[in-house]
């Protein structure tokens, strides 16, 4: 397995308990992503997981419309799609060269889907007040990604404005701040910092 696929496996395994804990009545709950409810984040994450399977294989991915999986057995479907995602990024060849669809190194693309598998479960956990602890190795890899991407995600509206954190903040708290998340966000917050789904 490639390093990215190992990190995707670990992060997917940590995301599953969060997804399983979400109750149907929580699908309309607010999240750290302004204007996006729990159900919106679930649909977005599902779209990302499916489309980045295609990007691993260098085949077209459709981000033009977001699927609505909420009327399906989406918890079980995530398990299947997570497995497919990990398998797609397992060959070393998946990380070689440049993505024809994204115009970025394949390694960067693999790290991008890892970012979604770490940050969006936190979004959902914060919104539904369930425990979530990310894989420390994935967090370290994602700091490398954020360094590599520089200002691009913020210019594209993928990240909100950086949220300052204390000098003694742990690596995941620092990652959330760099991605425009407020690590101290709660469902009672009235002004979420994040302005887009990233």
What is the arithmetic mean of pLDDT? 92
- State the fourth-level CATH superfamily: dinb family like domain
**How many angstroms separate the termini?**
26 Å
Please give the count of helices: 7
The number of strands is: 0
Structural class: mainly alpha
Largest sheet: none
Count of the domains: 1
CATH-defined topology: Four Helix Bundle (Hemerythrin (Met), subunit A)
Q: What is the radius of gyration computed over CA atoms, rounded to a whole number of angstroms? A: 16 Å
**What fraction of residues sit in β-strands?**
under 5%
Helix content: 40-55%
The CATH architecture term is Up-down Bundle
Shape field: globular
Low-confidence stretches: none
Give the class-level CATH name. Answer: Mainly Alpha
N-to-C order of helices and strands: HHHHHHH
Quick overview of this protein structure:
With 198 residues, the chain is mainly alpha-helical. The protein has helices at residues 3-21, 38-56, 74-88, 106-128, 136-149, 152-155, 171-178. The longest helix is centred in the middle third of the chain and has 23 residues, at 106-128.
